[in-house]
Amino acid sequence: MRAVHNPARGDGHLAALMSGELDGLEALVTHTATGRGMTPSWVFTTRGWTREEWDAAVGRLRGRGLLDADGELTERGLALREEIEAETDRLDRAPYEHLGAEGVGRLTELGAAFAKAALLAGAYPADLIGKR
């Protein structure tokens, strides 16, 4: 059960990505292919990756059968992303269980206020906001 979506899931998410044998850029490419990730142009601008590096990661993922010719996740790619998210949730669960329903509700309230303030301050690029 996901009590709250934690966008900064930290070490557990990194461990799950490593277990899935995805490097940092491959993780971004596959996340973007889910339709919920950042746009490639935003990744280039904010993360410093180049189009050439992105294309190389796409090629590696195609070679592993995780992306199809159109850059969409294959069944295998979808299954891998689902496994990664499930493992991240498992590793991420203990703090939320410790907080309980009331604490998670308050954390969600505070997080939403913070996210709104960051949004209003221009912390997120327009092309990313439209995807949410």
Q: Care to describe what's here?
A:
- The chain is mainly alpha-helical.
- 69% of the residues lie in helices and 0% in strands.
- The protein has helices at 10-19, 24-33, 40-47, 51-63, 75-120, 126-129.
- The longest helix has 46 residues, at 75-120.
- The protein is globular and about 45 Å long.
- The relative contact order is 0.15.
- Residues 1-5 have low confidence and may be disordered.
User: Unreliable segments (pLDDT under 50, ≥5 consecutive)?
Assistant: 1-5
Major beta sheet summary: none
Termini separation comes to: 22 Å
Task: Give the structural class.
Answer: mainly alpha
User: What Rg do the Cα atoms give?
Assistant: 16 Å
* Helix and strand sequence: HHHHHH
Q: What is the helix fraction of residues, given as a range?
A: 55-70%
Give the overall silhouette.
globular
| Tally of helical segments | 6
In total, the number of strands is 0
Mean pLDDT over all positions? 86
Beta-strand percent range: under 5%
Topology:
Elements: H1 10-19, H2 24-33, H3 40-47, H4 51-63, H5 75-120, H6 126-129
Helix pairs in contact: 1-5, 2-4
Q: Which keywords apply here?
A:
single chain; 132 residues; mainly alpha; 0% strand; globular
In brief, what are we looking at here?
The protein is an all-alpha fold. It has six helices and no strands.
